[in-house]
Amino acid sequence: MTASILSQKVINLNESASLKAAALAQKLISEGRRIINFSIGEPDFNTPDAPSLEAIKAITMGKTHYSNPQGNLDLRESICEKLQRDNALDYGTDEIIVGSGGKHIIYHAFLATINPDDEVIVPSPYWVSYPDIAALCGGKPIIVQPNSESLKLEAEELEKNISAKTKWVVLNSPSNPTGAVYTEDELQAIAEVLKKQPHVLILSDEIYEKFVYPPAKHVSLVNVAPDLKERTLIVNGASKGYAMTGWRIGFGAGSTTLVAAIKKLISQTTTCPSSISQEAAKVAFSETQPSIMMRDSFQGRRDQAVTILSTSELLGDIRKPEGAFYLFLNLEKIVGKQTASGKVLNMDDDVVEFLLEEANVSTVSGSAYGFSPCLRISFACSIEQITQGCQAIVDALASLKD
Ligand SMILES: Cc1ncc(COP(=O)(O)O)c(C=O)c1O
């Protein structure tokens, strides 16, 4: 069958670049190559025991049926308690929608609200899926450049890009791919701009909330600007903070109008999130210990990666991420150099290919995140792999010539 059967929307859609890079690394590993996979976007820890045991209990007790499309009431109660305990935010169960992952919530939120040509402001460097999901829902992604030092969105730049057509502004803290964490003051400045634009909705993606390295602190936009609560959809979930990526549970906290609209869409698309995963997530959201253990471990791995990579003159001053589990390296001193075999590395994609070939390390290029020339390295793998992989990168870079 030919591609002519496909819709223009799907033809225009890009496959997730990070999932594609991770899949290529897995393929090479299965073919016998000893690749260190720095392209993964998930914790390497197993799901903690408590949610796993709750899922087994759910299966044996026959909790295996369709649920409320909005998510079970007791799970939504557990989410409200989590928001109160961890974030000092008050939400009622009718302001919570549970979906099959945070990505599913973002997709349905955009689908529920975007009319043709509505604009979605996406600060760069961005998580690969925001522009594609916005376009898939008929919107127009407007990419806004960050502060060149911090790689964060600045209030003035945001203000310049808001128009009468702006439907959503996307905020992501801690950020994938940079690991940047917005401070209270930075969020306050952004909030002041948003308060003047009552037609704009705000997506606050806080999925990496549990991985913030002291002294940095996670703050939600709704904490600093409670008057924006009605227009903000907080997106979070079980995937990252609770090492439950495969369970597919995410949630949105927002206005009852938006929650009801997403519920209606879910009732016609996926019907409801997995009933077994919902039982597990209910327990996960009541726990704090496992994420603290993971956070401390990631912090050690981050420090190890930065220490080794900093020994390469070509990587310059490495920005230490304050959150998430990614390093976003600047490749300005590397593009234009030649490999030993004479190939010129013209762009970050070439560097990714070079590192895969010469260092046996899989990474993702900045171009996937709308910001070049850069490289994303995930440090969600063992300290041994980090040590070996980062040293291999340093050694491969040392072989480059002017
Ligand atoms: C910034 C960001 N938001 C949302 C998600 C979606 O996570 P999930 O759908 O697994 O809950 C991801 C996953 O990589 C992410 O990096």
TrEMBL record:
<dbReference type="InterPro" id="IPR015422">
    <property type="entry name" value="PyrdxlP-dep_Trfase_small"/>
</dbReference>
<keyword id="KW-0808">Transferase</keyword>
<feature type="domain" description="Aminotransferase class I/classII large">
    <location>
        <begin position="34"/>
        <end position="393"/>
    </location>
</feature>
<keyword id="KW-0663">Pyridoxal phosphate</keyword>
<dbReference type="Pfam" id="PF00155">
    <property type="entry name" value="Aminotran_1_2"/>
</dbReference>
<protein>
    <recommendedName>
        <fullName>Aminotransferase</fullName>
        <ecNumber>2.6.1.-</ecNumber>
    </recommendedName>
</protein>
<keyword id="KW-0032">Aminotransferase</keyword>
<dbReference type="InterPro" id="IPR015421">
    <property type="entry name" value="PyrdxlP-dep_Trfase_major"/>
</dbReference>
<dbReference type="InterPro" id="IPR050596">
    <property type="entry name" value="AspAT/PAT-like"/>
</dbReference>
<dbReference type="GO" id="GO:0008483">
    <property type="term" value="F:transaminase activity"/>
</dbReference>
<dbReference type="InterPro" id="IPR004838">
    <property type="entry name" value="NHTrfase_class1_PyrdxlP-BS"/>
</dbReference>
<comment type="similarity">
    <text>Belongs to the class-I pyridoxal-phosphate-dependent aminotransferase family.</text>
</comment>
<dbReference type="InterPro" id="IPR015424">
    <property type="entry name" value="PyrdxlP-dep_Trfase"/>
</dbReference>
<dbReference type="InterPro" id="IPR004839">
    <property type="entry name" value="Aminotransferase_I/II_large"/>
</dbReference>
